[in-house]
Amino acid sequence: MEKLVDKGALPAPQHGCFTNADTDLSGLERQLDMRDRQIQQLSAELAHLRRTFNHASAMARIGVWECSLADNCLTWSDVIYDMFEIPRTGRFNREEVLDLYTPASRAELDIKRAQAIADCGSFSMNAEIITRRGNRRWLRITASVDADEAGHPFRIFGMKQDITEERMHLNQIRELAENDMMTGLSNRARFQSVFSTFCEQHADGEAGLMLIDLDGFKGVNDTFGHPAGDACLKQVAMRLKIALGRSELVARVGGDEFAALVAPPVSLAEAEAMAWRVVEVLGAPMFYEGQPVVIGASVGLAFGGGAVGPSCLFRHADLALYAAKDAGRNRVCLYGADQAEMAGARSLRA
Prior knowledge:
Elements: H1 20-60, E1 62-68, E2 74-76, H2 78-84, H3 94-98, H4 103-119, E3 122-130, E4 136-147, E5 153-162, H5 164-178, H6 188-201, E6 208-215, H7 217-224, H8 226-243, E7 249-252, E8 257-262, H9 268-283, E9 286-288, E10 291-293, E11 296-303, H10 310-326, E12 332-334, H11 337-341
Parallel strand pairs: 11-12
Antiparallel strand pairs: 1-2, 1-5, 3-4, 4-5, 6-8, 6-11, 7-8, 9-10
């Protein structure tokens, strides 16, 4: 008798048919491939952004930094290495970096950093450094402190920007605003801005003012022309810098008028000696295009500082200057009782 078989219970295998396990594995592979492509795309975008940031950072001369407060470990972007002229692959610690700051900038940095850490706050400042290669630079530093959930600071981070060129431009502008273009000395505006503070700082009356007026300068312009007069003023400025090297400020306050501020440790006797030295060096012949040019100088000297006030001190020095001219020029006159008696008869130029 023929045996019957239930063919529906054991289906015959067919070519090209996958099990559920095969299907799931194939789907996972596709997902992994997609994720790989996404990661590669994100990595490329991140690398592009990093390059863009580095280029922008380099152009703006701005770098990013952070410091772990647990071990003072520093992390810098490339630009900061370049600011300090430290090789990017070099090894260093925070103390070595701090040694590159000038003493004043380091002291200010220490104070502001400690306060920011104590307050979990922030600060900004301009600092001067001397790079590893010996170049002087100015940096603008901004910093903030991060704290954990318990309020304990754990890192300080921020930016550093090289502002050396900005600083140089500001100094040039300040120099143009405060210096006499002809002689290189301080100008009248600079003198006036310093004079009041100078007197306040010397309230004990030991500060002095020296006013210098050239004798015979008009004749130089009349005889040789204004170019000769300009050359003469430049030589006068050079000689004054030497003769008044111990003064706190030398300024050209008029066409042929100059002023100098003297204060301790320069004594009254030393100031008088400096004034006579001015008369001596300015009385020596000068030369223009090989021809000797002779002028002179009268000097008025007064002391009083904050004890008399800036207006009164200038008035006293001015009276002494007139007395020197009345006495025959090319001499020094110290303000005293004789000049005080003449005060009502003089028109003052201050």
